[in-house]
Amino acid sequence: MLATAVIGNAYDVALENFDTAADALELSQDIREMIKYPERVLTVSVPVRMDDGHIHRFEAHRVQHSSVRGPAKGGIRYHPQVTLDEVKALATWMTWKCAVVNIPFGGAKGGVTCDPKHMSQGELERMTRRYTSAILPLIGPEQDIPAPDVYTNPQTMAWVMDTYSMTKGYPIPGVVTGKPISLGGSLGRNEATGRGVFYTIQSACEHLGIPLKGATVAVQGFGNAGSIAALLLYDAGAKIIAVSDSTACVYNRNGLDIHGLIQLKNLTGHVEGFPESDPIEPIELLALKCDILVPAALENAVHADNAASVNAKIVAEAANGPLTPAADRILERKGVFVIPDILCNAGGVTVSYFEWVQDEQHLFWEAQDVYNRLERVMKTSFRDVLKIHLDRKVPMRIAANMLGIGRVAEAVQIRGIYP
Ligand code: NAD
User: Does any ligand 1 atom lie closer than 6 A to the CB of residue 2?
Assistant: First the structure.
């Protein structure tokens, strides 16, 4: 999992994006008051006995932004730069994302300010279990369902599930998604984000009349989301001309063999030194002439200073928040077609929803069932967002926010206010 570098305050961006879409939807002030801000914010201290015997206190948060359309849903992030504002922003985006793909979840996010790269498995397990017990009053399969995010994984979810289940006295797999298959995880969850990115790129190419076969692609970030998206694009006949990770960038104008590159990454942990490729500076990747640019690494990768050099027809936001608002404006002027993150990378939470449904029913689906349902959800959502983009003549990001925020606004209006 990756390191994040947030330029500015992500929560300010989330609020600004909300206002823009709410204005376009002409939402009343009353509705804005009810859906704009987090419903619950919990900050906890997590004391952990470290391997050397001393006790370290970690600060941690769980934010439930919305439960208007269903249980709050969102990952847990472990990172040294986790802040409450970042968690609030990510929770807010989860609400709109779940509504864009029309799954019956609200939005949430958790975060622990820690440096997992320098912690042992034992320390990570103790921290995860204590964090889980600290947020226990908030989570549950009908209340708030965590999942993996940056630097957390299926093992982390297994510890959350076990801690929660032990306090209740019986196994409750539906309290988390992104679990190992042996604990009630779903087939297809691991590759769901990259697969969803692929489906939205297919739809965008169809819309723009760009044949995917032979299309040139550059992928920044070769982790879970980026590598799976690259593999599916490669298998569909696209030419992946450049791929980067945190240490290197490999380039071949005639296309890289993505199966071989994944083998190398699994073997060595990086893409550096891939045969039949030339090394280029990672930052050069963003400016390569190509049909499709896939930022799948850090937040704010494309910003005011480098957006003008982007030379792609489509930018598919596999990462969360890879374009700053300033970059958005520049790409809009250049006529670049952006598939916004809350649509593009929503495949992950969609299959999380499938996992939760399977857990609740104790009935598990074949991988192909998962893929077919995911494709239907992603392509329908793309069409819904595209329609608003074309009808209302707004950028795709605003269109996606309008769709998500509009659905939450409708739900809150129908539910009314308690008491
Ligand atoms: P990951 O850790 O598996 O992969 C990230 C990759 O980015 C790694 O290969 C890393 O080396 C690379 N990277 C880091 N810094 C880089 C840089 N400066 N330049 C180029 N590459 C760099 O993470 P992931 O799960 O694939 O997540 C990537 C993004 O996708 C994040 O923004 C995450 O929030 C978003 N996302 C992921 C999922 C999911 O299910 N995995 C779902 C929705 C959104």
Answer: yes
